[in-house]
Each structure stands twice: as C-alpha cells, then as structure tokens.
Amino acid sequence: MSNNNIKGGVSLFWKLSATFLILLVIVGTAHMFLSISAAETFFQERNQRLNAPIAQSIIKEVKPIINGEIADNAADDIMHHMMAVNPSIEVYLLDPSGKIMAHVAPYKKVKLTEVSISPIAEFIATKGKECVLGDDPRNPGAEQIFSAAPIEEDGEILGYVYVVLAGEEYQSVASSLFIDYVTMLGGRTMIITLLGALIVGLAAIWFITRNLRTVIEGVKDFQAGDFSARIPVKSGREFNNVAVAFNEMADTIEGNIENLKSMENLRRELVGNVSHDLRTPLAVIHGYIETLMIKKDKLSLEERDKYLKIILESTDKLKKMVSELFELSKLESKQVSPKKEPFFINELIQDVAQKYLILARRKGVLIQSVISNNIKLVNADVALIERVLQNLIDNALKFTPEGGTITIKTNELENDVQIEVADTGVGIPEEQIPFVFDRYHIGDKRLSLDKNNTGLGLAIVRKILEIHDATISLTSKLNQGTSFAFQLPYYQ
Predict the structure, then answer these.
(1) pLDDT tens figures, 356-400
(2) In terms of domains, do 300 and 369 share one?
(3) Do 138 and 259 fall into the same domain?
(4) CA–CA separation, 168 vs 146, rounded Å?
(5) pLDDT (tens digit per residue) in 148-187
(6) What percent of the chain has pLDDT over 70?
(7) Residue 442 shares a structural domain with residue 347
(8) How many separate domains does the chain show?
(9) pTM for the structure as a whole
(10) Cβ contact 126:145 at 8 Å
C-alpha cells in the first residue's frame, strides 16, 4: 500500500470524524435547549395546576372587598393567610378592569398599575387546568404563572384576587436551581452522551471507510498504470455497487487499450506489407516503362504491345492488391459491422455462379449449383456473404485445371444452412492446410504473386465469417480437389 493511499484513507476518516463530531455538538446543544425549555414549561404547568385553588382559598378565608371598598384589615388577613399557605406568593387585588387596588408584595417593587384581564379570564374559564401566563407587576413585559379568582357580591364581580405564584423568593431559589440543572444537563449528562455517541460513531465510520479505503487503493493502482487492478467484491460489503461499476469500467478501458494496441500493430503491419508487396508490381511497371523509353525506336509494334499489356496487368494487380489490403485491414480492426437482413441464400448462389460462367468457360471449367428448394431465409449481410462466395470461387478457378468442375451446394441443418464450394483441382498438401487462411499464403508456391494472386482472398473470407460469428472449414486431397464449407443461421 502506498503512502498516498494511507494518507488518503486517514484524511477521509478524520474529515468524516470531525464532521460527525460537529453534528453531535450541534444536535446535543439543540437537544439541551429543547430539554430545558420543555422542563421549564413542565414545572410552570405543574406549579400552576397544584396552586390553582390558592386565589379561591384566599377569598374564602378573607373578605378583601366589602361594598366595593377594600376592607381595612384585608392586607393583614391576606398576609397572615399567605404565611400559612405559601410565603413565596404575591397577592394583588384588582378592580374589574385589572387596575391594582392593593397588593401584598415586596415594598416599592411593584411597577405596574394594572394587569391584563385576558389571561385572568382564560384561567378562570379553564379552572386552572391549562397553563396560562399573566403579567408580572414587578417586571413590565415579563410573564409569570398565577392563580386568580373573581370577587363577587350578589352576582356582581367587584374585582379579582390575582396571585403571582413565582414570587421574588421563589424566583431567587428557582434561578439557583435552574443553573444547577443546566450545569448537570449540559455538563455531565451532555458530555457523557456525546462521548458515547462519538465513540460509536467513530467505530461505525472506521468500518465504513475501511471498505472505502479498499476502493481508493484499487483506483490509485489503476491510475498508476496497473490496468489489471480490480476492487474485490464480497457479499455484505458497503460500496459493492461502486466496486462493480469500477471493475466494469476498468475492463472496458483495458479492452479499449488492447484494441488500440492491436490496431496500432495492424497499422504497422499494413504499412510493412504494403511497402513490401507493392514493390514487385511497381518494379515490373517501372522496368517495362524504362525499357520502352530506352528502346522506343528499336522495339517492334508487337513487342511494344506486349510490354504495354504487361504494364496494364501489373497496374490491375496493384489496384486489386491495395483494395484487398485495405479491406482486410478494416475487417481485422473491426471497423466493419455486418448489416444483417433476411434473404434467400439460393438466389444469391445462383446470381454469383451466373457471373462466373463466362470466365469458367474460357478456362474450360464447369460451374454447377446443387441447391435445395426448401432452404429457408438466412440472416446475414448480403454484400459480405456475396464477397465470401466470390473469393471462394476465385480460389477454386485458380487451382482447377481445364476440364475440372466447381460445385456450389447447400445442405439443410437443424438451425443453419451449410454452404459448400468444392473443386476438382490440384488440392492442398496436408502440411499447408493450417496456413491456408493466413495472409499472403500461396499454397505450396503453386501460384506466385505475379500471376494476379494477392494471397489475401481466403484471409478476407475468414474475417467476414468471423464477424458473422461463423467459421469455415476445408477438406482437401492432392490431385483430387478441395472443399470449403461454412454455415449461416436461419432467420428467426
């Protein structure tokens, strides 16, 4: 494993760990504040519900308003009652509009002259079963839990008893306890929770990034030039999809590289072959033209025509050789894709055989077709299969002497049709058979390149059949003949 791989994996681990820690702190802080807010609301609601009857109790024990006027001893009686019930509360006597008429609260600390009646009306309507906050007379703008009850006489509301449950002493003690609670919740509890979550999270991140580091190592090796590097894929692992996708991509890239190398080799081979194989016809053309120029006044008309005919044959051969070289190179570099379509192979065989009748008659060779009328449609590229038949018949004509026969026949198979091109020519020596389909192979030197033979015809046949996913076979006996056979699938 390289240092870069180690640094990359460790760096990723610490980045993920730092991100996870920050998220934990944010979530923990938010949870702490939400918990504190919920706890404060709970304590307020609980305190208000438990102390909801206090105002009604004061009215029962004390008659604070008599005939619309505050009783002389009302404040003392309320103070006495407060000391007996809850010394931390503050009591305010309100008129029907909420104006403070009297109060039992810390001296000179009451700053409001009236409080809002709406919360009081809501508290009385719900009988203290819902948490309602009212104005705090000592702190303008602040709200406190309270208890309230109406002061009635002959069915008429004379005012209200408004009891603030969180008095000054209560607030002091509550603030101290609240600080202790926040310290406990935010300090010990939060730290312990965060540490536990952090340990578990770091362990999880380590196991996850362990597999990711394997992926990174594979990518780094491939990047460094090891095109055989692949990421191991095991069941149950994270990032298996990434590994599979990378491996498929690597296979494709490696295949493309091999194809490029193959095409480069073919290009070099083509250049070498062209430069070598074109030398002979070019030398022939050059030699006879030079002769015509040197002996132009000494040559007879017959000799001149003979030399020109040789030059013309050499240029034809040169043209054919260049055409077949490029055709074979395209086939080998997979630049040719068959355009398959359904057609009747019988009709194609008849057409090709008809084209060769005149040429065969000139040589004294008989061409015959033995085909079945029940052959179904085949699926292939018509033009390329025609080229295969032409090359096989050309080859047969070259090696079949006068009086010989070339037979083209079809045989029905289960899923394919077999096409066979047989001749009664000179045959091929057994040791030459494995090399017949190679480039420039002129079987046993029976014909040479200066006899209009390029040595590429059978190589082209094999390549055309290969791109059709088909193969070609041959059988041959010396002085008896040769037979080539291949199969094409029926059209489904």
Answers:
(1) 998 899 999 999 988 877 788 999 999 999 999 999 999 999 889
(2) no
(3) no
(4) 13
(5) 888 887 777 888 888 887 654 555 555 555 556 656 655 5
(6) 77
(7) yes
(8) 4
(9) 0.46
(10) no
> What is the C-alpha to C-alpha distance for residues 134 and 123, in angstroms, rounded to an integer?
9
Diameter of the chain measured on Cα atoms:
164
Full domain range(s) for residue 297: 242-331
Q: What angle do CA 125, 126, 129 make, to 5 degrees?
A: 160
**352 in the same domain as 287:** no
Domain assignment of residue 233, yes or no: no
* E-strand stretches of 315-463: 341-343, 366-370, 378-380, 405-412, 416-423
**Quick one: tokens of 481?**
């003949």
Q: Are 60 and 78 in contact (CB under 8 A)?
A: no
Beta bridge pairs of residue 375? none
Residues 181 and 32 in one domain: yes
Same domain, 354 and 298: no
Token pair for 72: 């002389």
Cα–Cα distance list, 119 to 123, 160, 162 (Å) = 6, 12, 11
Among 136, 164, 192, which residue terminates a domain?
A: 164
Alpha-carbon distance of 146 to 127, in angstroms, equals 12
